[in-house]
Amino acid sequence: MNILEKSRKPRIGFLFIGCRRFKPLGEDTKSGTYVQRISRETAMISAELADDLEVVNSGDVFDETDLYRALDCFSRQRVDCILVVFHSWAEDSIWIRFLRESDPAIPLIYFCPAKNSISFEDCEDEDDLIEFLANGGMVGSLVGSGSIPKMGRTAKFLVGTIRQKKDDIIQYTKLCKIRNLLHKSRFAILPAYNEIMWNTYIDPYRVFAFGPEVTFISYDEFAALSEKLPGHEVTAWKNELASSYPVDNAISDEKFEASVRYSMGLWKIMESFDLDAMTLNDVDMRLFEKIGLRPGFYPNAINDSLSILCPEADLGIALAMYSLKLLTGKQLNTIEPFYIDDSRNLFCAGHAGPNDYNYPESNKYVKLSFDARFAKTKYRYAGAPFAWLRIPPGRMTMVHMSQINNEIKMLVSLVDSLEGPHRINGYTHSEFRPVGSAIPDFFEKILAIGTTQHFVVVQGDYMKEMRDFAVLCGFTFYAV
Predict the structure, then answer these.
(1) What total of structural domains would you count in the chain?
(2) Same structural domain, 313 and 254
(3) In the predicted model, is pLDDT for residue 373 greater than 80?
(4) Which of 80, 35, 298, 101 lies closest to 175 in space, CA to CA?
(5) Spatial separation of the C-alpha atoms in residues 450 and 448, rounded to whole Å
(6) Are 175 and 246 within one domain?
(7) Which residues lie closer than 8 Å to 366 by C-beta, 6 or more apart?
(8) 332-341 vs 277-280, strand pairing mode
(9) In terms of domains, do 109 and 19 share one?
């Protein structure tokens, strides 16, 4: 997908409803007409959101003509969600008509703005009376709320001042944008599932039903494209890597160059097929038979395109990683928990194969080492080097996605990645401690839910955002 589409501002449509019975009121009052007063509220909310969102507003809505103008505008501009505000009490026939005729696939944010302060003490004169009417949005919001379930619709409900709820509106609109981007995205499996882990896999039809199209790419295509790469480009990246990170003396120059070449090929195949996510079946012996190694480096061009690469043909972890990449723009790492060290109150987790290390926080945690798991095999480039990352320390969100029957489940936890030395040769890894839970309890809950082995970790706390995203997409959500 075009990077401009991925990086555009999220688009929010304004459905701000006023009362047509009040439109003539307020002429010659010091604070202006009813229409002018509610227009100021619209402008104030728009100004708060405009730096982060593309606001699509055809004007406040009082009648059917205004409503259909707004609906046409939302359709033409392809809004990601619609912000609904009742300025005051209003006849609810316009609102019910909207619920009946608008696209139910466009999510709604149902926002009841609290007022920073009320400027009148009584309603003895006309100016105060009009101000009272123009500030009566709670009445309209309450009346309108009942029609949402009656019409089979859902919404994200927010109450507070725009300053208090601004970040919630922006973040939810961003999640709606990500959901829309999923519909346009293209995923690939290179080249097929692996029979050693059937439970890991998601039905591609189930994925395409709510999001990306899935394609399959052969090792032959990957190898042919990699082998056409100009030698000077391969050498340039190899030299850049060698000058950026400590290099194990055991690495041979031939194997180093081969690992760099086929790692570059991963991006080139993604670029060639216009892929947003690719999952490499990197434990398939046919890969080693074809090219003689497992690619060991993660091209930063994948990050520049807001795309992702993940291991073992797992579409579930690809969905989790891609969604998090679009949400955070941060470094993402695939892990699978290896063991619990009870004496140190931690669990160790990581994953072999190419794993991202390109962000500044990882610089001092990367070494170039050999792939110990395959170092003693017969393959041509056995033990070819890779970027050996100790995942940086800090509070992290850990996300899992998989399929059980027709259900896509999302499991989200908070963990702390701990400072420490490189311990597991051949694997990007770290040692972790769950937040607010004993480790045995933590894994008992995960086992009872039923998952696969794969998780993705990202720096920061995104529990709330992932919960909202799961609801938006119809996933079953578990917080552990």
Answers:
(1) 2
(2) yes
(3) no
(4) 80
(5) 5
(6) no
(7) 244, 245, 357, 387, 388, 389
(8) unpaired
(9) yes
| Cα radius of gyration (the chain) | 27
* pTM for this model (two decimals): 0.95
Measured CA to CA, the distance from residue 144 to residue 156 in angstroms comes to: 14
Residues 332 and 392 in one domain: yes
3-state helix, strand, coil in the chain (%, to 5): 45, 25, 35
Query: How many CB atoms sit inside 10 A of residue 269's CB?
Result: 21
Q: Output the DSSP codes for 325-365.
A: HHHH---EEEEEEEEEEGGGTEEEEEE-S-----SGGGGGG
Bridge partner list, 455: 335
* Residues 218 and 326 both lie in one domain: yes
Query: Which 3 state secondary structure label does DSSP give 305?
Result: coil
CA atoms of 236 and 194, how far apart (whole Å): 34
Q: Do 397 and 254 belong together in one domain? A: yes
Report d(CA 437, CA 273) in Å as an integer: 43
How far does CA 139 lie from the centroid of its chain?
A: 36
How far is the C-alpha of 89 from the C-alpha of 79, rounded, in Å? 26
Q: What is the DSSP string of 99-134?
A: HHHS-TTS-EEEEEEPPS----S---SHHHHHHHHH
Q: Which of 180, 196, 231 is the last residue of a domain?
A: 180
- Do 168 and 248 lie in one domain? The reply is no
Question: Where is pLDDT greater, at 462 or 383?
Answer: 462
Closest CA to 385 of 257, 207, 209: 257
Last residue within a domain, chosen from 180, 201, 224: 180
Residue 103 CB coordination number (10 Å): 10
The tokens for 473 are 């997409």
Find the domain containing 382 and state its range: 185-479
Closest CA to 58 of 73, 77, 80: 73
% pLDDT > 90, the chain: 87
* pLDDT tens sequence across 67-110: 999 999 999 999 999 999 999 999 899 999 999 999 999 999 99
CA distance 252 to 150: 69
CB atoms within 10 A of CB 238: 22
